[in-house]
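Incident review: delayed structure delivery

Summary: a single-chain prediction request sat in the queue longer than the usual turnaround. Root cause was a stuck worker, restarted by the on-call engineer. No data loss occurred. The affected request and its eventual output are reproduced below so the record is complete for anyone auditing the incident later.

Affected input:
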Amino acid sequence: MLTNSLVELDRQHLVHPVSSFRGHEARGVRVLRSAKGATVTDAEGRELIDGFAGLWCVNAGYGHESVVEAAAEQMRKLPYATGYFDLGAEAPIRLAAELAERSPGDLNHIYFSLGGSDAVDSTIRFIRYYWHAKGQPQRDQFISVEQGYHGSTTMGAGLTALPGFHEGFGVPYQWQHKISSHYIYRNPLRTEQEIVDASVAELRAKVAAIGEDKVAAFYVEPIQGSGGVLVPPKGWVKAMRDACAELDILFVADEVITGFGRTGPLFACAEEGIVPDLMTTAKGLTSGYVPMGAVFMRDHVYETIAEGAGAKAVGHGFTYSAHPVSAAVALEVLRLYEGGLLENGRKAGARLMAGLETLRGHPLVGDVRGRGMLAAVELVTDKEKKTPLPAAVQPATRLFDRAWEQGLIVRSFAQGIFGYAPPLCCTDAEIDAIVERTRTVLDLTLEDPEIRAVLA
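Output delivered after worker restart:
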């Protein structure tokens, strides 16, 4: 009865993010009750492995009492402190220092936001201020990559290159430009080096077409997440970063998904061997326990803005920037990562990728890709032609439902792609269960009459 009541209350009052309002009303909500480690339990008592860590974010896993205690202690001592008026609190100050020490290169200056979308939004404002301070206010054009996701705030959605975040809103984005995704599986180019060279050439051509003195920055995810977990060719990120340096445009790495052990190291940029001019993080920063995001700035970006502002305030800030409770949680989560979770995540990630590779021979599997604890399996009805599942079968909903029925939560993309981002705390048995339950879902999908009707 309690569950039924919650479902009805949800239908009547709660607006869900990125959902079909009418579709959600018809389906109803699945209420989660509790969680521990990599397992969540719904209101009916069903236990499921969370193969997606909430929304790519519960990297440390659920139920860490030390994190709860860190939050509770901070709440008792100082539940809120503004960063305005030159005030502050110990936890965010220490967190900024800890992050700066661990970040690539001279990303020494940290601005805290509430999450990933407003971290990206903040970079847009900081970048505009940067170019004004340098006496180049005409640099107001931004470039990102097709299939990329950079948030759903009004400004961040402009950088996002997924149609669903633009359709129906009628917001003009004349300042936003895109280049093709590297998307290896569906790229017409034959070799990875050809893809790298083509992307660099396209970026250069785009800058030239817009005007070299008008482009402010280039945004990219080290691995494209919401576009379908698209892993770039080796050397692609560094080549794009080097091109930006030559073109004198700022390079922004969006590590909201890839940060904090998701791909192996603390930050994916370290693995790519680059230092971006700005970097955004969120999600794994607090392991999703409380909201928080962060913008990392290189010294030259910070100094340019500081000199340009002089004695004036830089007019950008949020009420909850550098929230002490969020910072206390993040500090404890960082200790957990370095106390063994990063290492476990690297081992679990290798096991996950090896396990998913065993699915490659399945009649419906066209591609398996990923790095560390971030992976995808792309389904097709014709391997040779790489034909995606037909939209008429509603792959996102049906695949998610089938996985749920097997005790597995994964991201199911509209194109017929499974996305994986399990907590770094996963055991060998949990990783193996993710793979085997996926195999069962593939077999059940293969038996679907609508799928069999279109198989090659």
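Verification: The mean pLDDT is 96.
Action items: add queue-age alerting; document worker restart procedure.
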